[in-house]
Structures are given as C-alpha cells and as structure tokens.
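Appendix B, record 7
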Amino acid sequence: MTTFGDRGRAFEDKYAHDEQLEFKARVKRDHLFGAWIADEIGMQGITRDTFIREYAAMDLTKPGDHSILDKAYGALVSHRKEVSMHRLEGRLAELMVEARMIVVSEA
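Structure tokens (predicted):
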C-alpha cells in the first residue's frame, strides 16, 4: 500500500512529465507552423530553414500565440497572400493536434 506522500510524488512526477510533453508539442507546433508559412510564401533552402527555426524559437522568447500569429500574418501579407487571423489561428490549432501526436509517438 502506498503512502499519501508517495501518491503525491507520483502525481507531481506525472504533472512534470505532462508539462514537458506539452512544451515539446508547442515547440514542434511552432516548427510546423513556420514550415507551413515558408511553403505558403515560397521560401527554399537555407532561408527557409532559418525562417522555420525562428518560428520554433518564438514561444521561448515571447510566450503565447499572439507574437507568432502576428509574425505569420505580416510575412504572408508582405508576400501579397490573402489571409485572416482566423485562418492562422485555425491552422495553429490543427498543427497543435498534429504536434501532440508526433511528440507522444516519440516518447
């Protein structure tokens, strides 16, 4: 039989593990989002890779989705692509689902 302290530690360990998976999923999502934006505006090669890395690192420097959405909107508009914030938010949500599946499958 486990003690209350053991159960508490197990809960804390599970919480820490879940948070780590969520963090990895957000980084993966941002990477996928950056790749999608790069494809939408026709980027290739090293410029594309650098662009994607910038997106993957954005949540580390400015937590939250606002900054990544603003950057994506600006990039698309500057390349004369018609886009709405609603579409970008939807795509970000879709990619979060995909990223979670990838992270869980790798764990």
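Remarks on this record: The domain at 4-106 is CATH 1.10.790.20 (Major Prion Protein). The radius of gyration is 17 Å.
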